[in-house]
Amino acid sequence: MTRTLVIETDGPGLYEITGRIDVPPGDGLLTLFVRHTSCSLVIQENADPEVQSDLAAFFETLVPPSDHPSMSYLQHTYEGPDDMPAHIKAALLPTSLSIPVLDGRLALGRWQGVYLFEHRRRPHRREVAVVTTAGR
Amino acid sequence: MTRTLVIETDGPGLYEITGRIDVPPGDGLLTLFVRHTSCSLVIQENADPEVQSDLAAFFETLVPPSDHPSMSYLQHTYEGPDDMPAHIKAALLPTSLSIPVLDGRLALGRWQGVYLFEHRRRPHRREVAVVTTAGR
Amino acid sequence: MTRTLVIETDGPGLYEITGRIDVPPGDGLLTLFVRHTSCSLVIQENADPEVQSDLAAFFETLVPPSDHPSMSYLQHTYEGPDDMPAHIKAALLPTSLSIPVLDGRLALGRWQGVYLFEHRRRPHRREVAVVTTAGR
């Protein structure tokens, strides 16, 4: 069973998608795969929203826009100052996540939420493929 | 088949779990999933222990404690100076690992070991869900 | 079904392997697993080659060779200045990738390519295990 989840984003940051994932009955494995190279999937704490904004702030500091002096070595700049940094963040963070399914529920820990992490500034329509495979 | 592996940690660093993973007979895929947002799973060289301590040192340098001057922009600090950096490291490093199973053995390379990477300072009891899915 | 893909590398950088991955008919999940601790697998933009060279340049800047003054804390240096940084990059970037299979094709986005990211300077022969698991 493969489905596609569509997430509309409106600027950089984390968008929680935990509640939007359909989980099949029984046991197995659910895999999410983001079909883009400028956003990511990430599992993070779902309690304090400051964790999510701090996380975005860290990555913005680690990978500044390409018009920042420290990034002057970048060549791929014609798609905007947030484009190449978005590709770099997409390499540093997961493109796919695999989560065990136990008795029809994601086996997430108590504080774990699933997020789409948008790295681009302009609004985007993001597709996440969801596939479930059978346990044995 | 889904199981839970429990790992008791006692401070930051890598804890090898390769030998504790039960592998089913036949071929397929084994997925490990850590049910926490302040530790990680990582595959690393299992020969020289300095690789593991150097790895921990690199991440400590890249993501210093939140009371370090370079991290003054962090907001989520009330759970201790090692908490938000632990969440950041948990985003930078894998939450899940999928390893092919060949004839009842993990298809690891000769120098690969599987580790739980603890990011918190205090002792923790960590749970890793292990699920195997059938090859086709 | 498990196979091994062999990739000959000749220095650091990204080597596209998308076209070399055999995809089974039907639906399911395909997982790639690199059997080494000094190279990675990564999904990146396959359009402009500058994205790939910029990506390699970023990681070279983030994790310089161990004879660079900023890396003087590293202990594991006897295998050459590019060895421990290669292990660090191998922790920061994926060892395994799971990609949904839809009707006998990888469900990659339009701009996504699959790459082996070599972190060592000398030529290497790299093995990637490929396993497919059945959808349900």
The ordered H/E elements of chain A are: EEEEHHEEEE
**Amino- and carboxy-terminal Cα gap of chain A:** 17 Å
Tell how many strands the DSSP assignment of chain A holds: 8
Per the principal axes of the C-alpha atoms, what is the gross shape of chain A? elongated
Kindly name the structural category of chain A. Answer: alpha+beta
Tally of domains of chain A:
1
Order of strands in the sheet with the most strands of chain A?
1-8-3-5-6
Query: For the report, how would you describe the main beta sheet of chain A?
Result: 5 strands, antiparallel
- The radius of gyration computed from the alpha-carbon positions of chain A, rounded to a whole number of angstroms, is 16 Å
CATH architecture of chain A: Sandwich
Tell me the name of the CATH homologous superfamily of chain A.
Answer: YjbQ-like
Q: What number is the mean pLDDT of chain A?
A: 95
Helix content of chain A: 10-25%
CATH-derived topology of chain A: Jelly Rolls
The oligomerization state is homotrimer
InterPro entries (chains A, B, C): UPF0047_YjbQ-like (IPR001602), YjbQ-like_sf (IPR035917)
Organism (chains A, B, C): Wenxinia marina DSM 24838
Protein name (chains A, B, C): Secondary thiamine-phosphate synthase enzyme
Family (chains A, B, C): Belongs to the UPF0047 family.
